[in-house]
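re: ur msg from earlier - yeah i can do the manganese (II) ion complex, just paste it... oh wait u already did. ok heres what im feeding in:
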Amino acid sequence: MFTLIDLPYSSLAPVISDKTLSFHHGKHLQTYVDNLNRLVAGTDLEGKSLEEIVAASAPVISSAAEGAVEKSPAIFNNAGQILNHNLYFTQFSPCHSEGSPCHSERSEESLLLAQIEKQWGTLEAFQADFEAKGVSLFGSGWVWLSADKNGELSILRCPNADNPVAHGLKPLLTFDVWEHAYYLDYQNRRAAHLKALWPIVDWNVVGDRYTRG
Ligand code: MN
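and the outut:
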């Protein structure tokens, strides 16, 4: 049985309002959890981890070797959405100094930030690229920073419930560009919402995802 994750904070306002956080976590994510529990009950996927279910049901990397698993878009979509939201919600920390980063983005010990600077030149250049890819994703989906097995980084623009795990990559950081993530607070202004998220990104969490085996 999957359960709704607890949030490691009580508020992310003003970047994300309490109302959006409450609906996004308590309603949208809860629905994906309920759906997946219903869909995998009594199947070969019951008891597997989210990552295993996503990999097994992903349209991209499923293979004949997994023939016992009948690929289900509904299972992939709901498992993917739980995985995506769990990574999304746990990568943030509250910041009350509006407009200025409250985390040590410039830590020289961060292997991730060193790799970002190696590939993009500056953190700001990476952020601009990440925002642009999120803005230009048509419809609903996620923009991801991901790493391959050699530690090379890439930005993925993933529709709907898609994610790096479905492509054999490690997910590090993600912005949700489904309208439910921002419409109450920013209406149609997706670009403004994405730009506003940087101060609440907890780079310690994202950096740990990069260096963890
Ligand atoms: Mn969402």
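cool cool. Residues 147 and 153 are 4 Å apart (CA to CA). ping me if u need the other ligands too
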